[in-house]
Amino acid sequence: MNFRDVGLTQEEFEIIQSQLGRNPNDLELGLFGVLWSEHCSYKSSKSLLSWLPHEGRAVVQGPGENAGVVALNDRLHVAFKVESHNHPSYVEPVQGAATGVGGILRDIIAMGARPVALADSLRFGTDNSAAIIQNGVVEGIGRYGNAIGIPTVTGEVAYSSVYDKNPLVNVMAVGLLPLDRGVNAQGARPGSYLVLLGQPTGRDGIHGASLLASQDFGDATEHMRPTVQVGDPFMGKMLMEATLAAIATHKLDAVQDLGAAGLTSSVAELCYRSGVGATIRLEEVPCREQGMTPYEIMLSETQERMLLVVSPDNWPGIEPIVQHWEVPYSVIGEIMDEPHLVITMRGDIHAMVPPEILAGSCPSRPARSEWANEIRQNVPHLTSFRPLTFDPEQALAVLGSVDCRSRHRIFERYDSMILANTVWGPLHDLAILRTKGSKEGLAIALSGPGRYAARDPYSGGLAAVSRVVGLLAAQGADVLGLTDGINAGNPDKERVFRELTGLIAGVADACNIFAVPVTGGNVSLHNETEGDSIWPTVVIGAVGRHHHPLEPVPDSPWQEGMDIVRIYPGGDWSLGASVFELLFSQLSAYPRPDLERIRRVYQALDEAWNKIPSYGVRMIGAGGLFVAATKALLAMPASLGMEISVSPDDAVRQLFSEVSGQFLIFCDPQATPRLMELLGPGIAGEIIGSVTPDSNLVIRAGRAHRFERTKLDRTFRFGYGG
Amino acid sequence: MTYDVVVNVSLKEAVLDPAGQQVARVLHNMGYAMEDVRIGKQIKLRFQAADLTEAKENARQMAEKLLANPVLETYEILVTEP
Amino acid sequence: MKVGVIIFPGSNCDRDTIEAVERLGMEAIPLWYTRKSLTGIDRLILPGGFSYGDYLRSGALAAQAPIMEAVEQAVSRQELPVLGICNGFQILCERGLLPGALRPNSSGEFRCTWEYMRITSVPRGFAGLKEGDVLRLPIAHHEGAYAVQPGQLQSLFENHQIFLQYSDETGSVHALTNPNGAVANVAGISQGLVVGLMPHPERAMASYLGSSDGQRFLKAWLGEGSQ
Question: How do beta strands A277-281 and A341-345 pair?
Fold first, then answer.
């Protein structure tokens, strides 16, 4: 076997030779191959990710562990992270998506948290096979989440032909843990047992991460297709209960889940973080198939497995717990002082490598901060697209477009209510969960339109953060932390690495302005088939502390006569990167959000709860004001309608611009002046209409255009002309 | 001629069968000694074809394109002559 | 009153159910599926979930669990009120303690939505519900289409065993209000003291969660409801 067979470069191989002081054998080469892959080592993105701020008042655990942890209050912590399963979902949509859900849940569980919510961000293509892939992915997410019993409470989906052969499946999981329940992968002590729990190991997904997720797709990958991992949510449930019960005893040294690169990555990371070594006896690993080689056992990606580290003294207290939950287990080795990972099979040593070299020495691609500066200053020209007349048919086409229409056909296939915490589920732009036993609840948002990053990744990065922070601000919720899911093409190409630089610089700048930390995330590169790469796509998950979760700020009006106020952070009413532009012109750059102004809007919204008696608020997003108003209307009692006026000579831009930082506010006319005062100088707040007793939507743009509620409802639910 | 064709779809040997595992476990608890259980699907087709070869070929194409998932499953075709 | 809640491997609504029972002031006793006796239990709930991963057929594997022997005996002595919710309903049907079976939804897909349903007849022991009452409860299932053998439906109606039917807000039952393809929109049935339903009352315990009709339903089953 040669270093190229396992995906290493000449330079990397030479570093391995010099650090080891010898040539690695085949098994060792395999270990390096997976651990130094893009997927496991983050070698192309690590230095860019160092730009993200990680500090915050609520941060308990930043990046580097299985998941980030933030403090909800003085009793509860929240563990959360987003992870992608893009390549597997293209190869086998149902199982690829299902195992993605299983994987991110195990990350949360490994922190000692009980998962309480899932959210997913999906991107699909527009060709014939895209619908089949979407159906499989949705089935897979539902199959796993529903069966293990964790609700899928929010999410988003968007479409473009750039995702035809590279669909994106980013799943976020959120879990809760009592303050004293924290555990991590840093506490392994010499002499302790390594206990492998869960599914017996098979020849599943060998090289899945290192080759499939770290190289581009093409004909050449066809023969490398490994045995596809099958998710078993039943075993996942038993493993979850066993692991959480074991952690609750406070008798474990450390916990690490088995994900990409299986046992190899799990043991190497654990030893590296704990500063210890370990011996593994492969004959002790329960196998599903006969005659598995050390190489196969070490690299298998069989799902539903977890590694516990527990001292011999404490093991008798843990073993009955594992037995109760009927999870297969085996003591497969011990932790030792000497910093070596020693892999043996029936007494023979098959590999001996310091974890520090395996998990800590992969060279990373340097960040180009001068590129980031260039990108910041290089503001793209905005489109001059400015249609003169408002056409109601175009409005309906936007509403019923794939990017705007109702997602009920997707989210009704997910259990969004199990655990009985869901106050706001997938019908809303963000999820709101109560937490049992605490006054504070969770606000969870996940978003990141790739469209906004397509022509100017920096702008897309700013917008993604701005959107989720705004969704939480509208509820008066405190942002505790963010998780980032970054997806892009082949980083070896200068164009792609530049895009990635812009995207991450945008996320970093926005986080700094809003003063919100990123506590971990995921990077998926090589989303590229036959040379065509996806749009650089970042999805940002936010977790917030909601102060009145049983009583969310409504996102639609509730009585006749209420004012409809539009908040606009200023600047040009550009149609850049809007759905309207996508449908009726050509996609151009997304106008860069003016974050300083937007931050002031958010501050005002944040204060509103305590200062205004009762009001509703809805963020304006895809499809602009028209779609936001329609969604609010459809959520109102059927007897109520809206009348909205826009300036006749700029109606289309005012109705369909997706510029960041816009909101609709619904409030009692007596409270409106108070609201305007809150906004402060320079932020435009304008009464654009009111709630009527006539159940339909009337848009006044010079003349009045009337949209029947039933027509809007049908278009929103089934698509334009549907 | 009308042919009755049975397509038996089963998971590839190396692919994990969680359902089979649990059925084996419960059968074992019910007192049946069990070494392995794997669950597949049986699909019965009835269609017109010129001859046996064509019937088999058509069934093979249906299995490849739709009835079996080549990533996870294998299939066998049994044709009954009219 | 001691309300037993059976936990099968893969049950996942057990915690929600236990919390709902406790919220109504009852003592909830978790019962692991290997138990062989139900001594000291006044009422029994088989909660929702994916027992044994729903593999083979939903409920089929759990119907063979050791504790189901004891449930069967208690039912045959007509001394224990038993409520099966969702997967619990499926298990009761698979064990033969309720007539009929739950087939995959007609859409072929899992479905989680809020539905209205009408009390068609009040099962034995219920207090505080009357015929024609309309409840709003969530469903969340893949195999929830109630089915019976040909000719069986008539007698189930005649014996007042069909107690819950998917309806509209006003209680009218028709094809458009059938979320899963269940025969005659059946959402729940009873036989003696055994009751099964697909919707999840334990998730509808407060208006901020979408409805408090689940609380009303469970109170009625516990015999504690009032008009």
Answer: parallel
Q: Are C50 and C27 in contact (CB under 8 A)?
A: no
User: Mind listing the pLDDT tens digit for each residue in C30-72?
Assistant: 999 999 999 999 999 999 999 999 999 999 999 999 999 999 9
Q: Do A230 and B17 touch (CB under 8 A)?
A: yes
Amino acid at A314: N
Decide: A381 and A57 in contact? Cβ < 8 Å. no
Nearest CB partner across the interface for B19, out of C56, C64, C66: C56
pLDDT tier, A531 (very low <50, low <70, confident <90, very high otherwise): confident
Beta strands A478-487; A518-524: pairing state? parallel
Q: Are A193 and A312 in contact (CB under 8 A)?
A: yes
Structure-block tokens of residue A486: 């970054």
Tokens of A518: 């990123």
ipTM given for this complex: 0.97
Q: Is B37 on the interface with C (CB under 8 A)?
A: no
Stretch(es) of chain A classified as CATH 3.90.650.10: 183-361, 399-405+553-722
Class (C level, CATH) for C2-221? alpha beta
Q: What is the pLDDT of residues A308-336, one digit of tens each?
A: 999 999 999 999 999 999 999 999 999 99
- CATH number (3.90.650.10, 3.40.50.880, 3.10.20.740, 3.40.50.11030) of A183-361 reads 3.90.650.10
pLDDT per position as a tens digit, A230-260: 999 999 999 999 999 999 999 999 999 998 8
The number of CA neighbours under 13 Å toward the Cβ of A104 is 35
Vertex A123 angle, CA A516 and A571, to 5°: 50
How close is the nearest chain C Cα to the Cα of A97, in Å?
16
> Measured between alpha carbons, how far is A147 from A141 in angstroms, rounded to an integer?
10
Q: Inspect the interface and report whether the beta carbons of C138 and A417 lie closer than 8 Å.
A: yes
Looking at chain A, which subunits does it touch, using at least 3 CB pairs closer than 8 Å as the criterion? B, C
CATH of the domain at B22: 3.30.1280.10
Question: Which of B18, B22, B71 faces A91 most closely, judged by CB atoms?
Answer: B71
How is residue B63 annotated by DSSP? I
Picking from B12, B18, B72, the nearest residue to A232 by CB comes out as B18
Strands C2-7 and A532-533 turn out to be unpaired
Residues of chain B contacting residue C67, judged by C-beta atoms under 8 Å apart: none
Count of domains observed in chain B? 1
Q: Is the pTM of this model over 0.80?
A: yes
What subunits touch chain B, counting only 3 or more CB pairs under 8 A?
Answer: A, C
Residues C184, C206: Cα–Cα separation, whole Å = 29
* Best residue of C34, C61, C94, C142 to probe chain B, by most B CBs closer than 10 Å: C61
Q: At residue A242, what is the residue type?
A: A
As a whole number of angstroms, the distance between CA C98 and CA C72 comes to: 11
pLDDT digit string (tens) for A436-466?
989 999 999 999 988 999 999 999 999 999 9
Q: Do A225 and B71 touch (CB under 8 A)?
A: yes
- Considering only CB atoms, which chain A residues are within 8 Å of C137? none
Strand partners, A309: A194, A254
Question: Using alpha carbons only, what angle is made at residue A18 by residues A13 and A23, rounded to the nearest 5 degrees?
Answer: 65
Strand partners, A197: A306, A329
Whether B26 and chain C come into contact, CB under 8 Å, resolves to yes
| Largest pairwise CA distance in chain A | 87
Which one from A77, A85, A340, A350 is the annotated catalytic residue? A85
Encoded tokens for A19: 């650090």
CATH topology of domain A399-405+553-722: Phosphoribosyl-aminoimidazole Synthetase; Chain A, domain 2 (3.90.650)
User: Angle of helix A595-611 relative to helix A494-514, nearest 10 degrees?
Assistant: 40
